Known about the structure:
Blueprint: E1 2-8, E2 13-19, H1 22-32, E3 44-48, H2 67-77, H3 88-91, H4 101-116, H5 120-125, E4 129-131, E5 137-139
Antiparallel strand pairs: 1-2, 1-3, 4-5
Amino acid sequence: MKAYCCRQDIDMCSTIVFAETASKARYIVMRSELIGEDLEFKDIHVRRVPELDKYYRGQTEMDWYNAEDRLAMVRDAGFRCDEDSFDPDECNGCSAKEYCAAYEEYLEDQKYWDEYDRCYECRGLGDDYIVNDNGELEPWCDHCGFNPNITGDDDNEQTD
């Protein structure tokens, strides 16, 4: 059996099915409603994923909720959590966390905010950094009115 990634564009759902041909994979998905209801043959896009052939164990579909299947789907086929359902708290127990592009993007966002955000007020206002004369990012905190190190004295207050 060969592995096929089947998806539909309406709800952006995908799954991996095992079948002898692409048209049989499309038929399996259409009949079982794995990625949506009332789909027509033309609405299902199929592409071959030979990297996942070795995970065939007699089933017609890989199970996202099975830790081994999820790991293979993420690592070998590039699957990831949907943006709308991504929850970083759930990543801690996920078998595929170290291969997941969504989790990697989340970590990069956290690194960015940790590096440049100094206080809640600035983050909320979107004024957490400025671009200096050299075109580099510079923390806004030295100029921020919420900075407790700025006393408000005319001698000590810094301005742009």
